Fold:
Amino acid sequence: MLTTTFGEQDVTWDQECQHPADADASVPQVSPTTADALARLLGLPLSTAAGLLEEYGSLARLRRASPDALRRGGLTPRRAAQLMAALDLAVVVRAERPQVRPRVTSAADAARLLVPEMSVLESEQMRVLLLNTKNRLIAIVTLYTGTVSACQIRVGEIFREAVRHNATSLILVHNHPSDDPTPSPEDVAITREIVRAGQLLDVEVLDHLVIGGDTYTSLRERGVGWE
Structure:
């Protein structure tokens, strides 16, 4: 179990969220009532809705299906358009944040804020969660949007945002459009560089999350980047 000090408080980052294969490390997948809700929304037989969910495995992957694939799955063009609109709305609703700034004290807290939105991105993106001394979220800043497989990171820009928002700590989050949340050697290397820069600038880098599909990996909980 890893414990790090945020400001004046000791906060424990739960290692049960460490690996994508762990149940606690993933955002819940399709619930038992999702097929029924989908069937009622689109006026489909329950078997057709359940078949779509079984084929794609999650609503996030269903949202990325092409119109031709949905047509082969039994949807008319009108119903496919309705489905896409409903799933787009669901992303907006899940991404809405309360007026009260949430406290972020674990990798799971950070993941809950960003997995719903970043799991469906089609290109790689880097965001940073900026926190105050009480671990309250100040802002979520999108730093870079890259190609399908990569984005370029400038360490100075990360800390420029931290200074501008008067943040005392930060959490990095980026996604893998391949749906595989395994950190690459480049992810580990840039994390080490950013952690060292934070030590010099007195801005603590608390974690770096890699989102892949509906799951995520915490580099801090894996013990890489902070050696």
Remarks:
- The chain has a mean pLDDT of 81.
- The chain has nine helices and seven strands.
- The chain has two domains: 34-94, 100-222.
